[in-house]
C-alpha cells in the first residue's frame, strides 16, 4: 500500500499482525491480514525477552514471565487454576493427580459432549478460543500440546513449525506440525480430526527423518565460524524453550531454513526470505535475543552449504537469489513472485513519488519506471478503523488514499491496485496488470 510520508503507523502492532497470515479467506473474520505499512523500517525487538544459558548441544531459553516486545504479554501463561493460555487459546492439560476437573476421564467426556476440543491426547482447548484464534496461533498451540504430552522423549520441531517458533510469518499457514522422527518406523503422518461443531480441525503432525548428510556436514564444519546472524555459535544443536513449565525443542534457524525452503513453493519461500533480509518477525514467535538481526545476501547464500542434494541446492539458490529486503509485507513479497511468474517485468520496490515542487507525496510499493506506473498491494486492515495499522477511521483512510492517488496521477503517473485475493488467484492479478499495461519481461535469448 502507498505510504504517506507523515503517517504515524504503529510498527509493533503492524509486525504482530503478520501472525494472522492465513489460508482462511473468510472476509468477515480475517479481511486481509497480510498487509503492513511503515514510513520507515523500525528497529525490531524480540517478541519475548529471554535469558540464555548455553550447553554443549543446546541453548536453554527461559522465558521471563513479564513478557514484553511485540506481544502484550508472554504467549504462554499458566493461570492460578492450572489452566494454560497458549497464543490466546485457553487449554487444559489432563492430570490424574490434579483433581476431578483435570482427570483424563472427565476431560475426555467433556470433549465427547462438545464442551472441550481435544488438541492431542491429554490436552484440550475451549472451543470458543480455538475457533477464534488465528491459524498461526492454532499451529503453535498444537506444537505446544505435542510437547506437553511427550516430556520423556521431547519432539524436536523442524521445517515450517520451527520457522514459526523463530518468529517468521507465512503467506499461508501450514496445516501440519513438523517434527523429527527418531526412526524410520516413527516417520509419517498423523491425520487430523474435526469434531462436530468445530470450525477448525486438529493440525496434522508430520514426522520427518533428519537428513543423514547433516552428520557429515557437522563434522566438516566443526569449529568454523557461523555465517548466520545468531545469538549462539552452536549450529547443530537445538534450542530448548521453556513455556509454562513445558520444554519445547526447536531446530536451529539455519537448519530449518535449509530443510524447508527448497520444498516450498516460490511464494512461501519469498515471504520467509524477504522477512529474514528485512528483519521482520511476527509477534507469535518465541525467538531469543539476537535472533532478529537482518540477514544479508551472503548469509542466505551460505545456506547452500547445508543442502542435502544437488537438486535441493539448486532450488535453494534460485529462491535466495530472488529475495529482497525492500518488501514491506508478506503481501508485497507474494505479489512480486506472482508478477514475475506471470511473465511481467519485475518492478522496482519502495519508490518515492514527488510532486512538481519536489515534495514527497508518498512511497509506492511497486514502480514500473518506463511506464511511469505505480503498483499498490492493498491490505484491507488499513480500512478497519481502530483495528487498522494507523488507527484512523475507515472514512479517513479512504479519503486520504483518494487524495494521495489523485496527487500521484497529477504528476503524470498511472496506478494499479490489487488485493490479497488477486494474488491468491493469479488470473485476477494478471487481468488487472494487463489492463494497466504493465510491461512483460523480455524473453530470454
UniProtKB/TrEMBL annotation:
Residues 14-31 have a biased composition (Basic and acidic residues). Residues 1-13 have a biased composition (Acidic residues). Residues 1-43 are annotated as: Disordered. It comes from the Bacteria. This is Transcriptional regulator, AbiEi antitoxin, Type IV TA system.
